[in-house]
Structures are given as C-alpha cells and as structure tokens.
C-alpha cells in the first residue's frame, strides 16, 4: 500500500538515470546536427546558429533532423 523509503529512492534513481540517458541522446543529436549543417553551409553557418541548436528543445531538434538534407539556412533561422 505505502512505498518504503528504499522503494522511493530506488524509483527516483531509475527515473533520474532514464532522464539522463534521454538528455544525453538529445545532446548527441544536437552535436551531430551542428556538424552536418556546418559542413553543408560552411562559413554561412555561424556560432549563433550553433548555440541556438544547442539550446533547442526536443521538438525543434526533431524537425531539423527530419529536414536536414533539404532545409535552407533561412528555414533553419526561422525554426530556431
């Protein structure tokens, strides 16, 4: 009926571990997107865009991923 303190701690640790994995995956995706777009747009891809991608939420990152081969620099700027 009631969770013991040990069960609560275990559940919270597992939740934190899972959240860490999700955030780590998202961070890796952000860095890969930056690398690909940097190669595509070269000198037109500046540090401000890099920083905006690093701060972008998961939904925005997913939109960029879906369109990474066709997105224009202007579309990227509007999205971010």
From TrEMBL:
Highest taxon in the source lineage: Bacteria
Record's protein name: DUF4351 domain-containing protein
Species the sequence originates in: Petrotoga mexicana DSM 14811
